[in-house]
Design a protein that fits this description.
The protein is built from 13 helices and 32 strands. The longest helix has 23 residues. The protein is of the alpha/beta class. It has a 22-stranded mixed beta sheet that branches.
């Protein structure tokens, strides 16, 4: 059956009243939905003042171009298996739900300054860009067909309450200077995928079941709980602009452009200069952004992911409640970003593997400072993991080794601590014990005893602290070894040797491999 060919006016009449006799010829009835099928339509323009109150569902149809400029769709505007020869543009309009499923676009999709409850773009082949700029979007779902279509979200006053990005093969998405309150990403991303979120105002992020072979970039995310936008009138902007030069520019632009009727049209107009945008944003953004103190911290969750090459840059992770479950972070790159090691509360299923991954990542970047912190956290989690298991001789040895390293140098991170502990807590008490084990020596607390200890015995301490000293290093004083002297000396050599090793190890902590 060939497609029916309709003109613009006939099509508008049909979608205005899908229950009319004329519409029956072009409609299939699917329960509550009446679906227009197999129609060919040339350019269609929906303008200001036009309003459509019924669901508009179109299946297997062909369009040259659709341009919605200020029109209102009170229900759903849904395209299934349709093709578009030229761009689909919706500008400064409103639609309750805008849905594309399995559609073909020879050019792009432009959604500008729109207010809608939901947008869904599902497995569509778009040969140019998809642009979302300005407006309020309660829910936006993007199921990418592949990485060849570029989805671009930008504009300081683009507010998406919930954005869900899914990929089966790959995706190419950039978002900059926008508000995405809740961001969820899941799926498989091939090596050509590019996901870039920069300078986004955000409150919640969820990475769920991601297998990433492409490039992910999250840069300068700002945590803020924005729950809505309230745009001022242009008269209000003009009256409250106190910079005379900027004010005159705004007045001239609004006066001489018939297309500028709303704040978003003015702000996102191509003739609005950067100076004007910067002034307006700096002076009015707090009045426009409706924020709420949520009473809790923002959330960032990574669950069951292999994140691959992901770069986190300039993100203060201590602002978030973190949740990391069964995920591989060994290849992520952290730039001016640090995963906290002592923050409460935050949750991870396997702290040992998590901090080992972060240690590997920091080592790959030669980030020596963070590498040490992640190593200490990994060792602490290793101790907890072993201690929670059934004890054996082997595990007792492992626990002892971890505790000893923590005691001496905090796992190789503090050489001064290792030195002080080795000298004053380990070596000196053992030296005193060694002296007590000698046969022909008497030490008391009298004045003579003190002088004898300070002048005759204490100078040998610096030889004793050398793990390679001879056991008879005090023979010049004609002091004879006792029955326990060799045993005390052996223990001292071991413990002092560990201290020397930990001190050298800690001193070299910033040496690159």
């Amino acid at each position: 059956m060939e497609n029916s060919i309709l003109d613009e006016q006939t099509f508008k009449k049909l979608i205005s009243n899908p229950y009319s006799e004329a519409a029956k010829e072009h409609i299939a009835d699917y329960g509550l939905l009446k679906v227009f099928e197999k129609i060919d339509i040339d350019d269609i323009k929906f303008g200001y003042g036009e309003s459509y109150i019924e669901n508009v569902v179109i299946d297997r149809s062909n369009f040259k171009k659709i341009d919605i400029n200020g029109a209102e769709f009170k229900q759903m505007l849904w395209f299934k298996n349709c093709s578009f020869q030229h761009e689909f543009t919706i500008y400064d309009g409103s639609v309750r739900g805008l849905i594309f499923i399995n559609c073909e676009f020879n050019e792009g999709i432009n959604i500008l300054n729109v207010q809608t409850e939901s947008i869904s773009i599902d497995k569509c082949n778009v040969k140019s860009d998809i642009l979302i700029k300005g407006g309020i979007y309660k829910n936006f779902t993007y199921n990418a067909l592949n990485e060849k279509t570029h989805l671009k979200i930008n504009g300081a006053f683009t507010f998406i309450e919930y954005f869900k990005l899914s990929s089966f093969i790959g995706a190419y998405v950039t978002a900059e200077e926008s508000i995405i309150k809740l961001l969820e990403i899941k799926g498989d991303f091939n090596s050509n995928s590019r996901i870039n979120f920069k300078n986004i105002r955000n409150f919640e992020i969820l990475f769920d079941n991601i297998n990433n072979d492409g490039k992910f970039y999250l840069t300068d995310l700002q945590t803020e709980n924005i729950i809505g936008l309230k745009f001022p009138s242009l008269d209000y902007i003009i009256q409250n602009t106190h910079d005379t030069e900027i004010k005159n520019e705004i007045v001239d632009q609004v006066k001489y452009s018939s297309k500028i009727k709303t704040f978003l049209q003015f702000y996102n107009n191509i003739t609005t200069t950067i100076n004007i945008k910067q002034y307006v944003f700096a002076h009015f953004f707090r009045e426009i952004f409706i924020t709420k103190d949520a009473g809790n911290k923002p959330n960032l969750a990574i669950k069951y992911c292999s994140l691959g090459s992901m770069e986190l840059k300039g993100i203060n992770l201590s602002n978030y409640d973190l949740l990391i479950l069964s995920s591989d972070l060994s290849n992520i790159k952290l730039v001016n970003t640090f995963f906290p090691v002592n923050q409460k509360p935050w949750t991870f299923s396997d702290g040992l593997n998590l901090y080992n991954d972060l240690y590997t990542s920091a080592t790959r970047q030669n980030n020596l400072h963070d590498r040490i912190e992640y190593y200490k956290a990994a060792q602490n989690n290793l101790y907890k993991k072993i201690a929670a298991e059934k004890l054996s001789i082997h595990k007792i040895g492992s626990l002892s080794a971890i505790l000893v390293s923590q005691f001496y140098s905090n796992h190789g991170s503090n050489w001064i601590r290792a030195m002080l502990i080795t000298i004053f807590i380990i070596a000196f008490p053992l030296y005193c014990l060694f002296l007590l084990s000698l046969d022909n020596i008497q030490i008391d607390i009298s004045e003579n005893g003190k002088n004898y200890f300070l002048h005759e015995l204490l100078p040998y301490f610096w030889e004793f602290i050398n793990p390679l000293h001879r056991i008879d290093f005090m023979k010049d004083s004609k002091i004879e070894l006792g029955n326990w002297s060799a045993f005390v000396d052996l223990i001292a050599r071991i413990l002092i040797g560990i201290g020397v090793f930990e001190m050298i190890r800690s001193f070299r902590k910033y040496v690159r491999n």
